[in-house]
């Protein structure tokens, strides 16, 4: 679409320059006829017909110039509409992405508690080691089912959101 706009703008510029040039020619022709003493009738008629033809062409070029400018504006509106629709789609995708990131953050903060695990790095007197809490069973009883339920709810929510978003587009 931008390629078409480039050609339309070029055409508008060309028509505007042709109009400007022909307007100057009409002005010079009119000045010439007023400054020249034209005695024979055929010469006066020829100048008059030429002037009328020039003015007719100026009128046509003015109309073409206005149509070209109107087409240029309509094309700009179409391009802006197209770009706006793409921006809306990008915004919707960003919202979905943001919601997914929030879900992942909540899962990480609320459900995967690090209080059940401890890593002790090596020191000069003790080697590195992992310690697991003796209440680790609470993790399996509470956190794992809660995590699975949250993930299942999130997947269901994503499907409903995708279905609703598909109906709007």
Structure description:
There is one protein chain. It is rod-shaped and about 120 Å long. The protein has a domain of 85 residues. It has a two-stranded antiparallel sheet with strand order 1-2. A hairpin with an 8-residue loop joins strand 1 and strand 2. It contains 3 helices and 2 strands, in the order H-H-E-E-H. The chain is 82% helix and 5% strand. The model has no long low-confidence stretch (mean pLDDT 83). By secondary structure, the protein is mainly α. Keywords: Membrane, Transmembrane, Transmembrane helix.
Q: How many beta-strand elements?
A: 2
- The rough form would be described as rod-shaped
Distance between the termini: 22 Å
Main-sheet strand order equals: 1-2
Secondary-structure-derived class? mainly alpha
Main sheet makeup = 2 strands, antiparallel
Order of helices and strands: HHEEH
């Amino acid at each position: 679409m931008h390629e078409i706009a480039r050609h339309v703008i070029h055409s508008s510029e060309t028509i505007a320059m042709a109009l400007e040039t022909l307007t100057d020619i009409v002005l010079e022709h009119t000045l010439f006829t007023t400054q020249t003493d034209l005695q024979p009738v055929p010469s006066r008629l020829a100048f008059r017909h030429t002037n009328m033809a020039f003015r007719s062409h100026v009128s046509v070029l003015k109309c073409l110039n206005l149509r070209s400018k109107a087409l240029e504006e309509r094309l700009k509106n179409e391009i802006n509409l197209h770009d706006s629709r793409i921006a809306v789609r990008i915004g919707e995708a960003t919202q979905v992405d943001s919601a997914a990131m929030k879900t992942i953050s909540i899962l990480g903060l609320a459900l995967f508690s690090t209080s059940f695990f401890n890593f002790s790095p090596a020191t000069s007197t003790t080697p590195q080691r992992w310690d697991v809490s003796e209440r680790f069973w609470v993790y399996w009883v509470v956190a794992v089912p809660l995590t699975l339920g949250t993930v299942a709810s999130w997947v269901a929510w994503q499907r409903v959101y995708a279905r609703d978003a598909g109906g709007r587009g």
